[in-house]
Amino acid sequence: MITAQVQIGFGELPDDVCALYDENTVQAALAKTLQIMHAKHKEGLKFAYYETLQDDHWTKPITLDVYITEKNEAQALNLQARGKDYATNILSYPSDLPAEMLDLLPELPLGELILCHEVVQKEADAQGKTFLAHLTHLLVHGVLHLLGFDHELGEVEAEQMEGFEIEILSQLGVANPYADDEY
Known about the structure:
By secondary structure, the chain is α/β, with parallel strands linked by helices. The chain has one domain (4-171): Collagenase (Catalytic Domain) (3-Layer(aba) Sandwich).
């Protein structure tokens, strides 16, 4: 069984916005994503960022840091990390600790997700989704990035990642976020 621990931090956001990011929601998205992806890993699926890890690493508690920020900070972070000068919905920073270091730690640090509240809310509204459904989708999407999946590498990779997202979200009670997309 996988144990997942989440730490949520906030930038300069009002309390009512911070309250939207319920730790249980984030925890559920992380736990379900890890449960499903761990089963796939045991069947032979490779995680690009964790190829050298032994199975015993996955028995440790898995930690995830989530940071919610406002548009200006998100834009600056996106520019710094990806060279793109706009606020994006989510940024993923995988842990890059070597396996030898992970052997010494009592937990497996997955990395950090940074969400821009204004972009998440705007996208949810534009797509006619609840904030919670869109947030859950982005959390699943971000965790998959932390495991090494990348939809920007090509169509095959995008379809694989979207397939994982659809499967995981369905088990979390969230509708297929790509149902209206045309391919």
